[in-house]
Structure prediction request, 629 residues.
Amino acid sequence: MWKQPYFLVGFAILSFFLGGSFLYEWLWGNVPRQIFFVTENGRTVEGPPISPKWNFPLGTDQYGYDLLGKLMIGGKYTILAALAIAALRMLIAVPLGYMMATYLQRQRAWIGGLADSLHYIPLTLFAAYILYPVLWMPLGGFTNTIWERIAIQVVLMALLTMPIVAVLIGNEAALLYRQEYVTAARVLGAGEPRIIRKHLYPQMREKLAVLYGQQVIETFIVLAHLSLLNLFLGGTKISYDPMFSDPPMSISFEWSGLFGSTFRYLQGSPWLPLFPVLFIALSILAVTLMLEGYLRSKDIQAPKKSSALAQDEAIVDWNREQLRSRMVLLKNAETPKNPHNL
Amino acid sequence: MKLMIKFVFSVLGIVLVSGFPVLIGGLVAGELRLTEYIGALEAVLRGLWPLQEFTVLNMRTNREIPLFPTIGEYIIYSLELLFLAFAVAIFFAITFTVLTMLLKEKARQRIKMALYFLESLPDLLVIMLAQLAVIAIYLQTNVLISKIAVVQGDHIYWLPVLCLALLPMIQLYRLCMLTFRDEERKMYIELARSLGFSKVFVIWVHMFRNAIISVFFQSKKTIWFMLSNLFVLELMFNIPGIMLFMKDNISPEVFLVSIFSFFLPIFLLYSIGEWLVLRHLRGKEAI
Prediction:
């Protein structure tokens, strides 16, 4: 796996974002640098939002904060949240799926129907509908801390499509139950836990890994979509001031929040929403690359016809050669027989 | 019969989901509000019962408006966009699949990899780049190729449809390529080729018929993906569709009605498709 270039590139991108994020906070604190105007020969040329320049490679936002700094600080929230959500979802869905295939064989039809209904609800909308009471700041301000909210959001988003994933795993496991070696194991006296641990799980390990990667990608996209509705990771700060109310703001600098709160600037200063989305796209690409590299190292794809044939021939050749060398050995063994026997 | 069970449970699932915010609210407060949850479900169903009289409080005008004649317009526009985009996606996916099937193995691999990475583009980026491109073209040449936002009573079609169709098209293309390749290994293709039929003919006539059924059954996931994209699309293009309507007047009742408005057509489409395929296959070897 670590020799696959695809996997390495993907891993490098993700760890760059994550490591860079922690490093940035450690070096410069968690407030990005701020600039109020750019001067050229003593004259003010540009006020915030400042377009990308050498000093500020990604420009600044409408309050003069450096966008690159914001993105670097926010990276860890978004990436870790996506990884955590997908991991939690798999952790719940895998045992459930196995249980469904093992003990609920009969009931699988209607459980499937129930989970299928989720297919008709747009994921983003569903997430927004459920997360709204958690993330939207009530009139008096939040009563819980940001980490509590993040934890609740992670759990809820993990549960969101968990039934679909569980049914998927259940169906896959049910297919494996029909395999002969499972029957053989059962005849030899293996219990259900042992069959699951020793036969079903190793068979499905690669598929589960791919499923995990897909869940991470999906989570990135849902997080970005949610931000369009001003629902940000860890809560949305709303100013209820009737006169000078600020627009809804993200509490952390996480990427989807950076995108959602600046989406209206697309035409005036396109770098503001564009770069956060680009960073999200890069992370998704990184996960895709890692998946592809992983698959290549395991070679899950059906081997090509030509290479399989070539391999068969090689084995035959080797056998023949071995046969010949064996015969030579026999011959050699036969000839010096007499001196030994003397 | 099996379809009926599926239908009933799907409806049940959607109804159960519509009451979730009550449960979640309780969860945040640290208590399990099961009785309130059931009560909320009952209230939603009862509130909806005389469908014609149900009204929603419109946030923008601050007035009660009847749900039923109003919502029809939104639903139709959304469904038009959805199915147009789906049709476009299927058409191009199949065309490209047939074209790439004619190529050599090495070129195929390369195209596959390129598309694989294109697929990881988020839909937001696609929409934003499309809008920026329209603006850039307008600034350069003074030609407005399409409006990028809907203003009052105006319907735009081709740019949203294109944005909505692009990613599903890539997904479907990958799906098609996989099924076509599986099909290619089967014996009857070899037989047809050895009888002297051209590659194009074999692909179009023999493989196509068999592969399309499997693609149809797997395309359900693509529709789900498109629903989520449709939501973002309506937000970003300011399209007066069902999703925007739902966002503006969110309440359990509106949620339920809106979900059913696209659940029914999609369910119908797939049920009819399944029925047709099964009838066609009856008496023959099952897939």
